[in-house]
From TrEMBL:
Highest taxon in the source lineage: Bacteria
Name of protein: 7-beta-(4-carbaxybutanamido)cephalosporanic acid acylase
Family listed: Belongs to the peptidase S45 family.
InterPro entries assigned: Ntn_hydrolases_N, Pen/GL7ACA/AHL_acylase, Penicillin_amidase_A-knob, Penicillin_amidase_dom1, Penicillin_amidase_N_B-knob, S45
PANTHER family reported for this sequence: ACYL-HOMOSERINE LACTONE ACYLASE PVDQ, PEPTIDASE S45 PENICILLIN AMIDASE
Active site residues of this protein: S183
Signal peptide: 1-19
Listed GO MF terms: hydrolase activity, acting on carbon-nitrogen (but not peptide) bonds, in linear amides
Gene Ontology biological-process annotations: antibiotic biosynthetic process
Amino acid sequence: MRTKIICGLLLAGAAAAPAVSHQARPAPGGKGEILWDSFGVPHVYAKTESGAFWGFGYAQAQSHGNLLLKLYGEARAKSAEYWGGSANETQDRWLIANDVPVRAGRWFQQQTPQMRADLDAFAAGINAYAAKHPDAIDPAMRRVLPITGLDVMAHAHRLMNYVYIASDRKVLADPATNEAGGSNAWAVAPSRSASGKAMLLANPHLPWAPSMLTYYEAHLNAPGYSVYGATQVGLPVLRFAFNNDLGFTNTVNTMLGYSSYTLTLADGGYRYDGKVLPFRTEQKSYKVRQADGSLKTVTFTQRYAVQGPVFDIPGGTTVALKVAGLDRPGVLKQYLDMGKAHNFAQFQAALRQMQVPMFNIVYADRAGHILYLDNGILPKHAGGDLAKWSAPVPGDTSATLWRDVHGYDDLPKVIDPASGFVQNANDPPWLATWPRVLDPKAFPAYVAPVGPVSQRAQMSVKLMTASPKISFDDFVARKLETRALMADRLLPELIAAAKDSTDPEIVEAVRLLSGWDHRFEADARGALLFETWAAMFAPKNFTDQSNYAVKWSLSDPLETPRGLKDPAGAVAMLKAAVARTRQLYGAVDRPYGEVSRFHLGDVSLPANGGFGNTGVFRTITWGPMKNGERTPMHGETWVSMIEFSTPMRAVGMMSYGNSSQPGSKHNSDQLQFLNSKTFRTLWIDRTEVERHVEERTPF
């Protein structure tokens, strides 16, 4: 069946409303214009590069002003000063202890003159919007104004190095904490494409609640720079992007860009190489807003060891933290250069800057090149695997103290494989294509775990290898697949083990599951029961393999884990799942979409898609039941699918809409695409954009 791609104009209405025009304050470098399309996507056209940054800042303020200012207030480590609260205080103290505000100032000064001008212009655009529309910004957030280019840099530094890499939860509580979410990515080479043209999927899975991980879609145009895509609110460059010649996306990887060192305390200091060394100390402070509006100053002494700042963690342990990349201030410039590239050589030159601290990068271009890169700023260790370095290591010896990081040529990568595709679904690099071309033994064990590879990642490979050639319609249809690989593997055995039962509940469960096609669609009546059983069979978010007959192995990476280790026990779990499903959802056979809803504001639609660890590629992670329904916690957010044909084919969507501002009509207007499993046409050509203009902002 051909997948339906609906042009946004048709769903939005046959005729666009007359465009509204708002004159904005002048931008650096002369005139420009923001054309807002009917989905609230800003198409910025500027006479200079800095002008494009100004327009992008103005656009982000219009679409996400409250969130944007909150993020910059937090990046200043002044969130407790602005808004009070213990959580804000904890967050500020973490950033101050790690010198983030001070370092951000140094980083800003280390930018090229052009990049400093760009960051200042982005900030000026934000300020211009806030000055022109004071009533559109929450008064509590206006405390953060005005914004400077340094604030933009501080936000990027905080997000990349002290959220993604070394958050306080990860360092002080649980090293397994994932602050970065998940993603899917595909790149298809001409050899595997039915049209002979390369194709690229960008598909991050991030939280739906507004946060620093909220995505924003935009189209930026200036001399020498024309790029379409998305990025997190607050960042002035697109991280998931394409131009007429190439495109790139990111997925979360296992790159471990920090080390935590357990210190042995002695005589007011700590032991190191047989000596007792004193801590270096600094007095630091922050302010906390009180209930009456007054400010209380909190002062603390920050200790430093040879490895870095020192922290006490629960259980009486003291650790020092060393983060890689703190001497690399160019993450924003690297993403900018990636978007400016027009061929593979230029793109690789940007990658070789090695300023982006983590994330797989998947790439395709018009010339037919494709790339998978397990990217990141990775410390060089003398030995040990990822598990060893994820936990605190002994800090009483210089033997564990790394002093260098790996370069681009050291990292796992796949370029133009014979298979004709690369993929990643947050799995380790070894299945970047199939058949495998990367061998874990060729890399240090701390680069990435050997496995296990998730069933979502296995499904990703299976979807890419389902046919010798992939058309663009195939590409889109496979992205929308809701079938659970876990159900394919286990249900036949479970049904066979339960088919002779006379227990009425088991008989009904077998009937229900036998009639289900293993897809998480709105009308599916067996999906909720299977999901409930699967959570019992494979605890820990469907990852525990204890109940499988065969566990995952690299020697059979696409067919393991599989089988029921204890069929009778699995049937007993099925009976328990029947009771649990009734308790949770009111009936064992309720349609999936009655319970699972795409619900934002006044829009509530039956949902599809499911938990990725059950092997569903169309990933939605559901929150707990509330008010008779459950809604997405995270999952499908920004999606773009492109083919480098002439003209380029580009479709996509932003699940939760392109604005978080109160009252905006663009904070739920794209749920229809999730519900109908369709996409918008992404309007790239200016003539095409002009036909769908909702508002104009000249500057």
